[in-house]
Amino acid sequence: MTSLTDLREAVDVVIGVDTHVLTHSAAAVDAGTGGGLGEITVEATAEGYADLVAFAEEHARLRAWAIEGTGGHGAGLTRVLEDGQELVIELDRPERVRRRHGAKSDPLDAVRAAREALARPRLGTPRAAGDRQALSVLMAARRSAINAATDAQRQVFSLVIAAPELIRGRFRGQKLPEMLTTAAALRAHPSWGGEAVTTVTVLRTLARRARALAAEAAEHENAILTIVRSWRPDLLTQHGIGPIVAATVLCAWSHPGRVHSEAAFAMLAGVAPIPASSGQSTGRHRLNRSGDRQLNRALHTIVLSRIRHDERTRDYVERRRSEGKTPREIKRCLKRYIARDLYRLLETGPIKA
Questions:
Q1: Most Cβ neighbours (<10 Å): which of 114, 124, 128, 147?
Q2: For the chain, what is the mean pLDDT?
Q3: How far apart are CA 347 and CA 294, in angstroms?
Q4: What is the spatial distance between Cα 99 and Cα 57, in angstroms, rounded to a whole number?
Q5: Local confidence band at 1 (pLDDT 50, 70, 90 cut-offs)
Q6: Are 336 and 268 in contact (CB under 8 A)?
Q7: pLDDT per residue as tens digits for the range 33-85
């Protein structure tokens, strides 16, 4: 259904849904005229989802759902609708600037969602559940553990710098990993004053926290590797792609057909050059700062790895450098080429049954 260029060719009614934590507001809109047919607000519960389906049944059998936040507040409703073989269109939240120039209410946002789906030249489906969602959850947990571990390590370093000399001397000449080991084993002496005892206690707590969080992140990475190997092991055979990069790519791509072309995948990754021509200046492009920044970072990681370890990539870099390209421009070109190759691999490669 993602290949449709006009939703009005497939359905009679579009049900727009504005999702929130506790409630969902829906509006039925005629696909032919764009006129409103009815509105309803329900609780975000199984009973509320059933009421929404019953509301939709009152208006049309041929219908589509345009939902804001299918991966967030609308995730529960999206699962119910997909289990019922309903056509679900994924929409981004409307920009706040646009909201300021008009009236704001949940039913109005539901109507806007339905009309936006009708106006779109291409339709986007929600990201898949199953392995993709499992990877997304694990990636979020790993990222959180790494960030918290990094904060704890910085705090250890700062406390050591400001600690009394009888404590600081134990860390002299040590790198951060050694400092964490030393801090985790610290013991306070009974003769020490309150400042020293407190500093030792906090250093030990922070060091043990940092090590525990690092171990947690490693467990998440092992789980991520298991899923990637089971789902798309072909990604791991590509130069510069490890389990974290592969998981990032899979979470953004989701499933075959969701991203309609390699150009759209490049735009999603923020590596598609954006035309910046005006007046007598033609053929100019500017940096694309939009898109999925995690996916963009994953492509950047692949580029750096291939520049270091792949002979063909190094030859390409030398050729483009001789043409006058800067290192930054060369990396942008490489990211665009890698996005194209990844998209073709994702769409045609082995898919888990």
A1: 114
A2: 87
A3: 20
A4: 30
A5: very low
A6: no
A7: 889 999 999 999 999 999 999 999 998 888 999 998 888 889 999 999 989 99
- AA letter at 82: E
Structure tokens at 243: 């389990």
Helix, strand or coil, per DSSP, at residue 92: coil
Write the DSSP string, 278-332: BTTB-S-EE----S-HHHHHHHHHHHHHHHHH-HHHHHHHHHHHHTT--HHHHHH
Nearest Cα neighbor of 114 from 170, 67, 161 is 67
Q: What would the two tokens of residue 26 be?
A: 């829906």
Q: Using DSSP, state whether 160 is helix, strand or coil.
A: helix
Structural contact between residues 260 and 237, judged by C-beta atoms closer than 8 angstroms: no
Residue 187: HSE in the Cβ half-sphere, 13 Å Cα cutoff = 2
Spatial CB neighbours of 78, under 8 Å, sequence gap ≥ 6? 67, 70, 88, 126
What's the token pair of residue 328?
């930054």
pTM of the model: 0.78
Q: Mean pLDDT, to the nearest integer, of 196-214?
A: 95
Task: Please report, in angstroms and rounded to a whole number, the separation of the first and last CA atoms in the chain.
Answer: 20
Cβ contact 26:74 at 8 Å: no
Give Cα 165 to chain centroid, integer Å.
46
3-state secondary structure of 8: helix
pLDDT above 90 (res 245): yes
d(CA 44, CA 318): 57
Pick from 192, 147, 148, 152: nearest CA to 170: 192
Cα distances (Å, whole numbers) of residue 81 to 4, 78, 90, 246 = 20, 5, 12, 29
d(CA 55, CA 48): 10
CA angle, 152 then 155 then 157, to 5°: 115
Model confidence pLDDT, tens digit, residues 179-199? 999 999 999 887 888 888 999
Share of the chain above pLDDT 90, in %: 62
